[in-house]
Design brief:
Shape of chain A: globular
CATH class of chain A: Alpha Beta
Helix content of chain B: 55-70%
Structural class of chain B: mainly alpha
Strand order of the largest sheet of chain B: 1-3-2
Oligomer: heterodimer
Radius of gyration of chain B: 23 Å
Order of helices and strands of chain A: HEEEEEEHEEEEHE
Largest sheet of chain A: 8 strands, antiparallel
Strand content of chain B: under 5%
Distance between the termini of chain B: 80 Å
Number of helices of chain A: 3
Structural class of chain A: alpha+beta
Number of domains of chain B: 2
CATH superfamily of chain A: Mog1/PsbP, alpha/beta/alpha sandwich
Largest sheet of chain B: 3 strands, mixed
Order of helices and strands of chain B: HHHEEEHHHHHHHHHHHHHH
Number of helices of chain B: 17
C-alpha cells in the first residue's frame, strides 16, 4: 500500500501546486530583498516546498531559479522531508561562503545527483560583500547535465541567495544573462 | 497461531538449507539460458538490457579499466561458471550499495568501496548479490511485486540510474524478503569460502555499517537493514556462525587498498559533501584505526568537524588538520581548512601562511579567487 499512498500524496501535491506570473519591474521578496526584473518569470508554489521561492522560465523539469530571502540562523534551506533518517541542511549565521556553498551542494544532491563546484569568487550582492559561484549538476533521475550559477550574501545574520540551474547546452546559456541581471539588481534593506 | 507456526517452520527450513549451503553441500546451478522474450522473465531481461545500455553511457559510471577489471575478477572468483554472465559496473554514488539484475548486470557503488576494508569484505557483498542471482530471487520478487502493483519499487531494487526515487545509505540492497536475504547470506558465505576468502569478514561488513547507522538522527532504525529485515544483530550472528564452521581464508587488504588508493581522495570528498556528519565521523574514525592513508582520513574528518562546528569541533578539526600535515601527504585542502580556522580566530599570520600554502599547492582550485581575496584582506 505504501507506493499507492506515495502516488496519492504526489497527485495531491500536484493538485495543490500553483503557478503565477511575476511581472517585469521591481519585486519585493520577503521583508528585506528587492530585485528588478527585465522580463516576466513564472513563480511555482507548492505547499511545504521549503523556504526558497521557485521561479522558472521553461517549467520546473527544465530550469529553476531558487530565491532565498532572509533565511535565519538554524533555518533549513530545504523542505523538511527526511523523517529523521537523514540529517538536514540548515543555515548558520556565522557561515563562510565555502560553507554556504557546501550547504547548497548538500541540499541539491539529496536525491543522489552529483554537484561540482567550478568557481567561487568574491562578488557584491544586494549592496553587501558577498560571493558568486558556478557549478554543474548531473541530475540523478535522468542523467541530465545542468549548469548553474549562484550569488549570495549574509546580511544582519540572514542569508540572501539566488541559485539558477538549467540544462547546459541550450537553456542555461539562454537564461543566464537574465539571472545575472537580476543578481546585479538585488538590493537588501538595512 | 497456525500461520506463525508455519512461518517458523519455514524459517527453520531456510536456516537448515542455508547451513547446508555454507557447509558445501549446496550446488551451484548451471548457467542460465536467456528466457523467451515473450515470457515474463524475458521481458524483465529486456528491460534490464536497456537499463544497462543507459548505465554504460551514464555520467555516473566510473570508467577505470583497471579497477573495474579487479572488481570483475573478484566477482568471477565467486560466480564460478557464471562468470561470463556477470558484468560489473562501477557507479559514482557515495552510498553503500551493490545490486545484481537478473540479466547479469551488477552495480557496485563507490560508497560501498569506500566502506569495505579489504577484498574479502567486497566479496561478502558481491557474493550475497550473486546468491540472489543464482537463486533467481528477482523473478519471484517480480511476480510478488506485480501482484501488489509495486513494479516501480521492484525496479528500484536494481539501483537503476533513472529509477531511483529514494536514495538511502542502503538503497536497493535489502529489498528482498527476509528468507531470501538469509538464503543469499548463506550462499554468499559459501561462495566466499570456495573462492578462498575469510568468511568472517562478512559479519564485519555489517558490524562496521552498524557503527555508522547508529550515529544517524534516528539511530538507524528507519533503515530496512535494521528494521524490517533480519535484525542486524541476528544477521551478524548468523554470518559469524556460518564463518566459524570453516575458518581460514584470505582478506587481501593490501591488494584492496592499492587498487582503491587513486580514488580515495575523491570518494572521501564525496562522503564529506553528503553532509551526514555523524555517520562520516564514525566511518573516518574507524578507518583511521587501520588505514595507512592517515593523512587523507585526518583531512576528511577535519573537514566534517569544521563544517559541523558544534561545541569543540573546531579544536578537533584543527588537531586533525595539523596531524594530517605531520603525517605527510596531506591533501592541499588541509591548508585551506587550517586557514579558515585561523582566520576565524583572528590568527592572521597563521591564516595567511596556510592560505598561501593552499594556493601554491592547488593553483587550479575552483575557489582560488575567494581564497586570494582572504589573503589580501589579511594583508591589510
Amino acid at each position: 500500500m505504501k507506493p499507492m499512498r506515495i502516488a496519492f500524496l504526489a497527485a495531491l501535491l500536484a493538485s495543490c501546486a500553483s503557478v503565477s506570473k511575476i511581472e517585469s519591474g521591481a519585486q519585493n521578496i520577503g521583508e528585506r530583498m528587492q530585485v528588478t526584473l527585465e522580463g516576466a518569470w513564472n513563480h511555482v508554489s507548492v505547499p511545504g516546498m521549503g523556504p526558497a521561492q521557485v521561479w522558472t522560465m521553461e517549467g520546473l523539469p527544465v530550469d529553476q531559479l531558487l530565491v532565498y530571502a532572509g533565511i535565519k540562523n538554524d533555518e533549513l534551506v530545504h523542505a523538511p522531508q527526511s523523517g529523521g533518517a537523514r540529517k538536514d541542511f540548515a543555515f548558520r549565521s556565522g557561515m563562510q561562503p565555502d560553507e554556504i556553498v557546501a550547504m547548497f551542494e548538500g541540499t541539491l544532491t539529496r536525491d543522489g545527483s552529483q554537484f561540482r563546484l567550478l568557481k567561487l569568487e568574491p562578488a557584491a550582492f544586494g549592496g553587501e560583500k558577498g560571493f558568486r559561484f558556478e557549478y554543474s549538476i548531473v541530475r540523478r533521475r535522468d542523467n541530465a547535465v545542468l549548469s548553474g550559477v549562484g550569488f549570495g550574501a549574509v546580511s544582519k545574520g540572514e542569508l540572501f541567495a539566488l541559485l539558477y540551474h538549467a540544462p547546459r547546452l541550450a537553456f542555461f546559456p539562454r537564461h543566464q544573462p537574465r539571472v545575472e541581471q537580476i543578481a546585479r539588481s538585488a538590493k537588501l534593506k538595512t | 497461531m497456525k500461520r506463525r507456526a508455519f512461518l517458523a517452520a519455514g524459517c527453520a527450513g531456510c536456516a537448515a538449507i542455508g547451513l547446508a549451503r555454507a557447509q558445501g553441500t549446496w550446488e551451484m546451478p548451471a548457467r542460465f539460458a536467456r528466457p523467451e522474450a515473450a515470457s515474463e522473465e524475458g521481458g524483465l531481461w529486456s528491460l534490464m538490457d536497456r537499463e544497462e545500455t543507459k548505465l554504460r553511457r551514464s555520467p555516473f559510471a566510473l570508467r577505470d579499466a583497471k579497477l573495474k577489471a579487479y572488481v570483475q575478477d573478484v566477482a568471477c572468483r565467486l560466480a564460478g561458471a557464471h562468470c561470463a554472465d556477470v558484468r560489473v559496473h562501477l557507479v559514482r554514488t557515495p552510498l553503500f550499495n551493490a545490486s545484481m539484475a537478473p540479466n547479469g548486470m551488477m552495480q557496485v557503488w563507490t560508497g560501498l568501496m569506500l566502506r569495505v576494508d579489504n577484498e574479502a569484505q567486497l566479496a561478502a557483498v558481491l557474493g550475497h548479490e550473486i546468491g540472489h542471482y543464482l537463486q533467481r530471487h528477482s523473478v519471484e520478487r517480480l511476480r510478488d511485486a506485480k501482484s501488489r502493483s509495486a513494479f516501480g519499487q521492484f525496479i528500484g531494487m536494481f539501483g537503476l540510474v533513472g529509477a531511483i526515487g529514494q536514495v538511502g545509505m542502503l538503497a536497493g540492497m535489502f529489498a528482498y524478503g527476509r528468507e531470501h536475504e538469509r538464503e543469499a547470506d548463506a550462499i554468499g558465505v559459501a561462495l566466499m569460502r570456495k573462492a578462498g576468502y575469510d568468511a568472517a569478514e562478512a559479519s564485519r561488513v555489517w558490524q562496521n555499517l552498524r557503527l555508522e547507522q547508529k550515529e544517524r538522527p534516528d539511530g538507524g532504525y528507519a533503515n530496512p537493514l535494521f528494521a524490517t529485515h533480519p535484525p542486524a544483530e541476528e544477521r551478524m550472528q548468523a554470518l559469524a556462525e556460518l564463518a566459524q564452521a570453516a575458518p581460514g581464508g584470505v582478506a587481501n587488504e593490501t591488494a584492496w587498498r592499492e587498487h582503491v588508493k587513486p580514488y580515495l581522495h575523491d570518494w572521501l570528498a564525496e562522503e564529506v559533501k553528503r553532509g551526514q556528519h555523524e555517520e562520516s565521523i564514525a566511518l573516518f574514525t574507524r578507518q583511521l584505526a587501520r588505514s595507512p592513508e592517515a593523512a587523507e582520513y585526518l583531512w576528511a574528518r577535519g573537514e566534517v568537524l569544521r563544517l559541523r562546528a558544534v561545541g569543540g569541533d573546531l579544536d578537533l578539526a584543527l588537531a586533525d588538520y595539523l596531524n594530517a600535515v605531520s603525517a605527510g601527504g596531506a591533501p592541499a585542502e588541509t591548508h585551506r581548512g587550517l586557514g579558515f580556522i585561523y582566520r576565524a580566530r583572528g590568527n592572521a599570520a597563521e591564516a595567511k601562511a596556510s592560505f598561501q600554502r593552499y594556493l601554491e599547492a592547488a593553483p587550479q582550485a575552483p575557489d582560488f579567487a575567494m581564497i586570494k581575496s582572504y589573503l589580501e584582506e589579511l594583508r591589510t
